[in-house]
Amino acid sequence: MTSLPMIQISPDASSAAGKPARASMPPRHLADLALPDRQALVAELGEPAFRARQVSTHYFGRLVRDPAQMTDLPAATRDRITDALLPTLLTPVRELACDDGATRKALWRLHDGSMVESVLMGYPDRVTVCISSQAGCGMACPFCATGQAGLTRNLSTAEIVDQAVYLAGVAASGAVAGSPPRLSHVVFMGMGEPLANYSRVIAAIRRLCAPAPEGLGLSQRHITVSTVGLVPAIRRLTGEDLSVTLALSLHAPDDDLRDELVPVNQRWKVAEVLDAAWEYADRTGRRVSIEYAMIKDVNDQPWRADLLGRLLAGRLTHVNLIPLNPTPGSRWDASPKPVEREFVRRLREAGVSTTVRDTRGREIDGACGQLAAAEVAT
């Protein structure tokens, strides 16, 4: 493999790798604001402060986004109030479904023309949405469609939250047959590196978990935040007093290979990244999820399974092996099933809890960034 360039990361790892391209942030939305700030905004319009609670209850409590359905607001001022609190952030470009409707992928156009993706996945016992935290990604992992596209900009808190609220409404409509009608889980595994948009992602988590009408009322324990290993940001997250699951996209147990598959490893090596993850597990009591994309003849050798097992044995962790969903024209391919099974066997033999991720959405460009890339190419 050819060595990839070093990624530049700010010392506190709270901004994106490199600098996002100049792009205007979206208009202020109620999901950007705490309830008292929403009330102050409504008061500035000359309206009673309680109108902010009414609109917030519609949005977060009833998953209603259409002002025409907010009949408890005065008709004469309804548009003015909702224009101030509920500007359009996400415009649907394409919505695709597969797995008998249990998997639904949405491609959104943002106010500046940037595009992001979200996925809703229904299961018999839960409904999960996978949301984006950035338009594009600056981490440059070569096997990832989003990484190939580069970074456009960070998303606002409300742009992040609005993806979950929209898809919660889809679930509540009964569109996902065989699944509960209520969104229960959110994973920050869509486009972007969540911890590179640190402050807005943390604000979005708090909004998603606050009870309505302040927020969506999800359990912190049902939120998963993925990272390629921004060590200062992981340590910062450890101090947030949150009980979310940390998912570490490791993809290789050795520095030589991880330097190429996950270029940020050139800054923070495997041992340092894992140490930060174990600090998070020790502080929160939450099991760390190790994400590992199985790539044919690249990172799926038995000796790498054994090395990974030695690194993780005895730790509060779980390995989530991911069959690679190849991007069009990519030289990367998924590991054969017998190779995958042997990798699982060796990890379990080392005492490491291991599962293989359910493959969803392959026929609808399910890998993150594929739908956006296809739209740009047309």
Give the H and E element order. Answer: HHHEEEEEHEHEHEHEHHEHEHEH
How far do the termini sit from each other?
A: 31 Å
Strand-residue fraction?
15-25%
Which strand order do you get reading across the main beta sheet? 1-2-3-4-7-8-9-10-11-12
Could you say what the CATH architecture of the largest domain is?
Alpha-Beta Barrel
CATH topology heading of the largest domain: TIM Barrel
Q: What this model shows, in words?
A:
This protein has 378 residues and is of the alpha/beta class. The protein has two domains: 31-85, DNA polymerase, domain 1; 99-377, TIM Barrel, CATH 3.20.20. The protein has twelve helices and twelve strands. Helix 6 links the parallel strand 7 (185-188) and strand 8. Helix 5 (157-172) runs parallel beside helix 6, helix 7 (231-238) runs parallel beside helix 9 (270-284) and helix 10 (302-312) runs parallel beside helix 11. The longest helix is centred in the middle third of the chain and has 16 residues, at 157-172. The two termini are 31 Å apart. 49% of the residues are buried. Mean pLDDT is 90; it is low at 1-21.
